[in-house]
Amino acid sequence: MGIERYLGFHFTETCIYIAEAYVGRDKHLHWDVMEQANYELEPEWLALYKDAIPNLYDTEKKVFGFAALPSIWRDFSYNRFLRFNSRFFEKIAQRKSSDDDQQKLANLFRYCQSSHIRPQPDETLVATLVVEQLSSEDRTAIEQTLKQLSKKAKLEFIDVTEPEEACLRYLWYEDVHQQLEVEHKMVVLVHLGYSRTFMIPWDHGKLNDQTTMAPGMLEIDRAVAMHAGRTGMSKTVGQDELLLYAQRARRGFDPDQNSVKILDAELETPIYLNIIQEQVTEISRRLERLLRNLKHWSRPVDEVLLAGEGIEFAPVRDALQSASQGIPMRFLPQPTYAMARGAASKSWKARNRDVELR
Asked: Which of 32-46, 134-148, 156-170, 223-237 has the lowest mean pLDDT?
């Protein structure tokens, strides 16, 4: 019998995160995260793609991911570049995708395998996906399509799981390594994702019914992109392109820098912080309200746990610390891989249902 490897793919609007779950010598679940080996990015893009693969296909050169990146800075043509984002997956769910689109998706998985996973001939790759901004009906329809693509993609697909489930699976298994003791506490897991922020109360290892959603980092980037687009830029680009540059600026942001560059627009740091203030405040306000409501219902929170790409953005991180009302706050490891790791954990559990370990 060949070896099985358990993978999780997390698709955002611009990136793909890949994790692999395995059982370590300590009999606990561990993860490897998949990165591009020996790939030298242009310095200004390193912040965005240091721990992710671009979810990108260049239809002209017929290349994926990092191989497509050098062309996109020179030509942002919508017709030339394909993004494997929520719109792409919605087309699959609505039966509006072509056979060619589905073949490209299968080829994307093969690209990820050859460049990032490197399977051996006798291995079976078992995969679970997380795609942000999809309904439960969409996820079911996409799962059916993926299972039809299994042979073409050389992956065995388990599920297209909910982002919330992926977050909690990540927390459940990470609990052992970080000694979080979630089974003995009331915690709130805040996943600061790209499309949205999830604030998930977990009451002594049980899901609470007061999950709250807040704007994700996309809303911050959108506010910046809209402002930059009104500043009279010398190069005419679309909103999608500006969003990518705004995301790059946010991922590389340092509070001590004097200005923030969005393509050829340069915003002084105080102006940049003023632009994003409304979105940052809304995220922190929703956490504050959730904590207050839980306390009102005699469910005071012992600890707030942070994951997701927004952890690394100081303005949001600082605002959440202020909103936590003195409740201890902890930053979880490999925060951008939280959903990918949770998805990989589901792949492992699907094939090891009778094994009880964390």
From this structure: 32-46
In whole angstroms, give the CA distance from residue 142 to residue 88.
Answer: 11
- Look at residue 67 and tell me if it is in a domain: yes
Runs of H (alpha helix) within the chain:
43-49, 65-72, 86-93, 99-112, 136-148, 150-153, 163-178, 217-229, 239-251, 269-296, 314-323, 338-351
Residue 358, pLDDT > 70, answer no
- Written as one string, the DSSP assignment of 217-284 is HHHHHHHHHHHHHTS--SS---HHHHHHHHHHHHHT--TT-SEEEETTEEEEHHHHHHHHHHHHHHHH
pTM: 0.93
Residue 138 lies in domain: 4-165+338-351
In a domain, 31, yes or no: yes
Give the pLDDT confidence of 44-68 residue by residue, as tens digits.
Answer: 778 888 888 999 999 999 999 888 8
Asked, for residue 88, whether it belongs to a domain, the answer is yes
pLDDT at 251: 93
The CATH number of the domain holding residue 69 is 3.30.420.40
Backbone angles phi, psi at 163, to 5 degrees: -55, -40
Per-residue pLDDT, 40: 67
Number of folded domains that form the chain: 1
Confidence of residue 216 (pLDDT cuts 50, 70, 90): very high
Does some domain include residue 240?
Answer: no
